[in-house]
Specification:
The protein has helices spanning 2-10, 77-85, 107-114, 132-143, 148-161, 177-189, 207-224, 235-241, 259-264, 268-275, and strands at residues 39-48, 51-61, 66-70, 92-97, 100-101, 117-120, 195-199, 227-231, 244-249, 252-257. The strands form two sheets. A six-stranded mixed β-sheet has the order 6-7-8-3-9-10, with helices on both faces. The two termini are 34 Å apart. The chain contains ten helices and ten strands. Helix 4 crosses helix 5 (148-161).
């Protein structure tokens, strides 16, 4: 299934249109396309209280591609995302997004860059006191000067994309867990981000709802041509959404390759994780 989806997506043209000056139009206004690679991480290390969380991690993600990062809990996956979005400063190394070193950018420049980055958390993290429509519109009202009519049109469009049409008037507690996840996705994509970071987006969902979310991630990548990082334990999901898959173990990438290579490799780390075996180089603490 993963290969079929990738072939279908590869044959479709980007919905991002460039004007005569090479700028693309977005909800946040004209902007130039991101550089390639869109994300470049160089030798980052993070330690907490003397415990090493990330050790000399490096990777590139081409513009418009998705990297799925897998591994046991506590090996540094979420820390990697926090470093990318600026919530955690690494002890050493460099992080480039759109060719800019986010660790040295002035605050005002980093704020501009962050508007092009969307993040989906493990929990939907919706505002309980706001309707679903108001949740989706939150970033639009904070970061744009769009009219209310334009905002409502965008909200309806994004809710339709995640298969929640006509639900803008409902509150989060009126939706199921899977519907809340989809509403959270709609809020993330409301401003057409160039980079989307997913922190275990299918946590707590049954296999069918997990596949619904994973297929939505693929659809969003096709529509937005976004560059994405997906942290997940869901092997089926990683095979579907990832152009590349990386295994993180004790703060280091121990393997990286394509979904097909992940399925066929006899690498001991991947084989143990893929087959759910207790014996192997991965030791559960």
């Amino acid at each position: 299934m993963a290969d079929d989806v990738k072939k279908e997506n590869a044959g479709e043209e980007s919905e991002c249109k460039l004007d005569a000056s090479g700028m693309e139009q977005s909800i946040l206004g004209p902007r130039r396309p991101m550089s390639d690679p869109a994300i470049s991480v160089r030798h980052i290390s993070v330690a907490f209280g003397g415990r090493s969380i990330l050790r000399d991690v490096s990777f590139d993600i081409p513009r418009g591609h998705t990297l799925a990062i897998m591994g046991l809990s506590g090996v540094g996956k979420s820390t990697t995302l926090r470093c990318l979005v600026g919530l955690q400063k690494p002890d050493s190394g460099e992080i480039y997004i759109d060719g800019k070193n986010v660790l040295t950018l002035p605050p005002n420049e980093f704020d501009k860059l962050r508007k092009r980055i969307g993040m989906v958390f493990q929990q939907p993290a919706l505002f309980d006191s706001l309707t679903i429509g108001e949740n989706v519109a939150f970033g639009l009202r904070e970061h744009t000067k769009l009219s209310e009519e334009q905002i409502q049109r965008i909200v309806a469009e994004k809710l339709s994309i995640v298969d929640l049409p006509g639900m803008a008037h409902l509150y989060p507690n009126q939706l199921s867990g899977g519907m809340q996840k989809r509403a959270s996705l709609a809020r993330t994509i409301a401003t057409d981000p160039d980079v989307i970071l997913y922190d275990e987006p299918t946590t707590g969902l049954d296999p069918i709802l997990s596949m619904v979310i994973n297929e939505l991630i693929c659809d969003l990548q096709r529509r937005l041509k976004a560059t994405s990082v997906v942290i997940t334990h869901d092997i089926r999901g990683a095979l579907l959404v990832g152009h590349q898959i990386a295994m993180l173990h004790k703060g280091e990438f121990v393997w990286r390759g394509t979904p097909q290579e992940f399925q066929n490799t006899d690498d001991p780390f991947v084989a143990q994780f893929r087959e759910g075996r207790v014996s192997g180089p991965i030791r559960v603490q």
